[in-house]
Amino acid sequence: ASQVSFSRLEDFKSLAKKRLPSDVWEYYSFPSCNGFTIQENERAFQRYRLLPRVLRDVSRVDTTATVLGSQLDMPVAIAPTAHHSLAHPDGEKATATGAASANSAFVLSSFANCSMEDIAQTAPHGVRWFYLILQNDPDRTRELLQRAERAGFTAIWLTVDQPRFQFQHRPESEMKSAEGVRLPNLTFDDAPGDARSPEFTAYLRDNVKQPITWDDVVWLRKNTSLKIVLKGILSAEDAKEAVKVGVDGICVSNHGGRQLDGVPASIDALPDIVRAVGGKVEVYVDGGVRTGTDVLKALALGARCVFIGRPVLWGLAANGAEGVHQVLQLFKEQLNLAMAQAGCSQLSDIKPSLVIHESYYLH
Ligand code: FNR
Questions:
Q1: Cβ(171) to ligand 1 under 6 A?
Q2: For the chain: N or C, fewer Cβ within 10 A?
Q3: What reaction is this protein's catalytic activity (predicted)?
Q4: Residue 348 CB coordination number (10 Å)
């Protein structure tokens, strides 16, 4: 690996932009529609102010967190994103290695280019969760669940904000850089070999279950003993429904501004959802988290863990597994410092009173 060492996330981003072919950079960066929500995700964090407590003993700061039953070095983990082979030849194996060496957690995407088994072999001790795409044939879904279980994935993530896949606009079929990529956690032996072909598009359309509904979540609950997380919830009503059907976690998310444009920043949607679930399940957030102070704000607003999407892709593109590790370390160090400066020596010291929305100061 090249010698890359940055103290700012921005530097990983610029190096990634320089290194990646332009079609990949655009695929990673672009939001849906007019891009209102993607901008709002980052802007919204800046509208919260931190109100630190002073004269506390912060000589030792402990950022360790328990998430879905696993002990992590920090409450920052990796959101599922597709096609890591476009960022680095080692693909998701590099991401898993970086995550494991930082003792964080990694959600592997169904649109990943490396198999679940490869991930287990490459980073056997890493905490790993699998974002599952349901198949029309329940036996095939069961097979994926069994593979995940055998490969040491301890939770299934269902992405619930994507009722309609646009298979004809897949990166594999539209991007030159995506030639030859595989989707080994989504397709089966009967898939056409060439992922760029119209036959492949038709295959996905025939096999992938869409839209999924609450009945599918109930089915999943009956068919796996792994923990279940629903990702992409924005309303308190849906959060309550999720609790009712017995999931273990909710990730408040707008898909990094890549699905319905015009929805609120996920950090703004978080507090209502935390209130609605009343501690019955774990609540996470992703979207626009770029600094340790963003993490601190999210924790104060009730998230148990925050997830990062694009920053990991920047680290991966800039410096492979080491880059992923460095990006995670950066978040950890920034969180550690922010906690000390805010008077918090452990995560349980981070209280809602630590954040105030800017509107409080403006009237
Ligand atoms: C994503 N995201 C995503 N989410 C998901 O549930 N399944 C997926 O396959 C993908 N794929 C994907 C690809 C790319 C290139 C990006 C940028 C994002 C969304 C992802 O999990 C997460 O919600 C956002 O990326 C979080 O926002 P930030 O951190 O990128 O601002």
A1: no
A2: C
A3: a (2S)-2-hydroxycarboxylate + O2 = a 2-oxocarboxylate + H2O2; 2-hydroxyoctanoate + O2 = 2-oxooctanoate + H2O2
A4: 8
